């Protein structure tokens, strides 16, 4: 048994086996047992750490000292970077939803592109609104607009839904303020400005190919009717004091512009007060704070939404964020365990042997 544990903890094949077993157990618990991902990641991480030879003190600390423990450092390292960003981004998206900004954005795009260009308008709406709004929230907010567009056009629901979903998916996967890109920036120590640039470079072609081109092609060949229970006459909707399109675009675009300004100002401008100001307001937490305060005033209080309503709106929107943060934090802890047990080095060595030195260097970062 001692020899097996020594092989498991120090041999490359043993470490890879340990990682594979941990990931397989993790998938089994999440998919088959339906265990909460947060609990599954935490439990499997502890098991892999103990099997990999990490001491209990190093893993969890003691009752009087736990600040240097892998468990706390794994969580704190990533949550300290993304918690404020995700929280503020969620509140910003909720205010946009409550104010009717999504409907305003779509209506303006439909007028610009015409009825034939409505699928493109839906895609752009999903892409733009997907920047501050989580994927599932975006679906909930924009689904009625998809139904209305399909009813008006008399065409397949796919023609309008796929471009919208592609826009929401791409921004969720590639762009801040979403957890994945923000977490990647923190783990690899990359400024968010560069994440935005590369995310746009990769995301826009993916969005256009999967949402616009594929959505248009399949939407013309497969007829999907709007569900009967979703057919709601537009006259049934109450009159709404909708915000101006300029306010909507300002609210969505301001944090992105501030972050980009801080990133490139740090590279292109000489040391001085203006550069320092750009760096300060380009800090993601500061940029989002400015955007949220602006949205509270322009889209909220100025338009008759009371402070009490805004408080309740913020509270309700932040409830789902807790589980997201727990999953991200436990995932970071699991990654820290793999690194501490030597699995990262083992995988990097294997990749180097397969002729992938760049992948090796990226893993070791």
TrEMBL record:
Keyword line: Membrane, Transmembrane, Transmembrane helix
Transmembrane segments: 12-31, 37-63, 75-96, 120-150, 157-175, 195-214, 245-264, 276-300, 321-348
InterPro entries: Glcn_transporter
Pfam family, one: GntP_permease
Gene Ontology CC terms: plasma membrane
Gene Ontology MF terms in the entry: gluconate transmembrane transporter activity
PANTHER family: GNT FAMILY GLUCONATE TRANSPORTER, INNER MEMBRANE PERMEASE YGBN
Protein name, UniProt field: Gluconate transporter
